[in-house]
């Protein structure tokens, strides 16, 4: 039923074209006005008639109608880039076929329905003389012909509806180039989300590890050194607040809330990572923004891993000569390494993408992480 409605909509859209063609034909037959004027009207009429099929709005309306009435799952048009010429041509062909099939169904119904009811309308005097003088037998023959045409029209409408549902993805769906572009865009979005997942792992993992160490230190000296315990609790509060803000920012990006996207931290924000359990030796740094952002995350995850795999305070050294060198060292833990996950692997991937080198693991009695990043042009 809905497919029949879709076809009849095409017939309704055909009416302005039919009326325009009728008016133009009448002008030619009656030779009203000059030939130049008639030709100018014809050119304008053709331009107006050919414009709608190539409009983006027409394509979107046809896609919406096909979804609702044909039951076809069609992707919407990407408004960020104009449709290609091949897409416009397919849309114009669909529009023309929609109007032609709708007009055919509409004309068939306009003929079949009155004929099928002829025997009854003649008896009521509603169509007296419309087909000339008819005998009772002739009246019934016309009625049977109308019923037959109506059956054929219904069957044809069903067939055209199925054909339209089959052809809609071909003519209204994306082209191979558009599908490839969509796949590439989807891969980029997935890569961005994976990057954000690493960001989330690094930042929140570091915050939780730092809070755990600070809480343990505060508990150990709570009675002996209340001042230090109070300082550790303040550090826990500040670390938790920063982690919550960063978590909110990352989740906002994952919700595609790009308007509120906050800038990623860089080496200028390195003080956020330094606690009483970290001794820092930082030289003069002048690196490109992308290296600075990735270096911040590498330092963050290195300190987290030092807390997991080592014991006691960690030493952070950051220096720059021909390349940026990051080193985090602390004493190895006597027990099994705490935690796990993808921290070291995430650091390796960051360093690899920048063309650098990284070493992470036990070094005698120490746990050492050394990353070297090319700085490139600044």
How would the blueprint of this fold be written?
Layout lengths: L1 H29 L4 H16 L5 H15 L14 H32 L1 H6 L12 H37 L3 H45 L5 H29 L23 E5 L6 H21 E11 L2 E10 L10 H11 L3 E7 L2 E9 L4
Parallel strand pairs: 1-2
Antiparallel strand pairs: 2-3, 3-5, 4-5
Helix pairs in contact: 1-2, 1-3, 1-4, 1-6, 3-4, 3-6, 4-6, 7-8, 7-9, 9-10
Numbering strands along the chain, what is their spatial order in the largest sheet? 1-2-3-5-4
Give the N-terminus to C-terminus distance in angstroms: 66 Å
Q: Per DSSP, what share of the residues sits in E-state strands of 2 or more residues? A: 5-15%
CATH second-level architecture of the largest domain: 2-Layer Sandwich
Total strand segments: 5
Supply the number of helical segments.
Answer: 10
Order of helices and strands: HHHHHHHHEHEEHEE
Low-confidence stretches: 336-341
For the sheet with most strands, the description reads: 5 strands, mixed
Q: What is the CATH homologous superfamily assignment of the largest domain?
A: Histidine kinase-like ATPase, C-terminal domain
What is the name of the CATH topology of the largest domain? Heat Shock Protein 90
- Classify the secondary structure makeup into a structural class: alpha+beta
What would you call the shape?
A: elongated
| Count of individual domains | 2
Radius of gyration: 38 Å
Task: Let me know the average pLDDT.
Answer: 79
GO molecular function: ATP binding; phosphorelay sensor kinase activity; protein dimerization activity
Keywords: ATP-binding, Kinase, Membrane, Nucleotide-binding, Phosphoprotein, Transferase, Transmembrane, Transmembrane helix, Two-component regulatory system
Catalytic activity: ATP + protein L-histidine = ADP + protein N-phospho-L-histidine
InterPro entries: HATPase_C_sf, Sensor_HK_TwoCompSys, Sig_transdc_His_kin_sub3_dim/P
């Amino acid at each position: 039923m809905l497919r029949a409605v879709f076809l009849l909509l095409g017939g309704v859209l055909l009416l302005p074209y039919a009326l325009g063609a009728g008016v133009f034909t009448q002008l030619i037959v009656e030779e009203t006005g000059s030939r130049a004027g008639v030709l100018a009207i014809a050119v304008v009429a053709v331009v107006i008639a050919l414009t709608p099929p190539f409009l983006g709005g027409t394509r979107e309306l046809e896609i919406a109608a096909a979804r609702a009435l044909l039951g076809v799952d069609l992707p919407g048009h990407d408004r960020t880039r104009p449709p290609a010429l091949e897409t416009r041509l397919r849309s114009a062909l669909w529009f023309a076929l929609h109007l032609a099939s709708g007009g055919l169904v509409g004309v068939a119904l306009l003929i079949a329905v009155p004929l099928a009811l002829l025997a009854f309308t003649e008896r009521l005097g509603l169509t007296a003389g419309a087909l000339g003088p008819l005998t009772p037998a002739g009246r019934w023959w016309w009625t049977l012909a109308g019923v037959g045409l109506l059956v054929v029209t219904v069957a044809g409408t069903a067939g055209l509806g199925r054909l339209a549902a089959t052809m809609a993805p071909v003519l209204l769906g994306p082209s191979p180039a558009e599908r490839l572009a969509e796949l590439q865009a989807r891969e980029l979005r997935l890569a961005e989300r994976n990057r954000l997942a690493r960001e989330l792992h690094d930042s929140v993992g570091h915050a939780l590890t730092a809070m755990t160490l600070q809480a343990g230190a505060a508990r150990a000296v709570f009675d002996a050194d209340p001042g230090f315990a109070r300082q550790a609790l303040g550090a826990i509060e500040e670390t938790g607040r920063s982690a919550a803000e960063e978590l909110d920012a990352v989740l906002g990006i994952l919700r595609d809330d790009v308007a509120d996207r906050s800038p990623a931290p860089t080496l200028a924000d390195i003080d956020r990572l330094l606690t009483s359990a970290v001794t820092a030796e930082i030289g003069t740094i002048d690196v490109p923004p992308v290296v600075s952002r990735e270096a911040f995350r590498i330092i963050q995850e290195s300190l987290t891993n030092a807390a997991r795999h080592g014991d006691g305070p960690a030493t952070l050294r950051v220096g720059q000569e021909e390349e940026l060198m990051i080193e985090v060292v602390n004493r190895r833990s006597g027990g099994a390494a705490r935690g796990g996950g993808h921290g070291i692997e995430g650091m390796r991937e960051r360093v690899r993408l920048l063309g650098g080198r990284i070493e992470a693991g036990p070094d005698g009695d120490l746990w050492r992480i050394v990353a070297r990043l090319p700085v490139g042009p600044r």
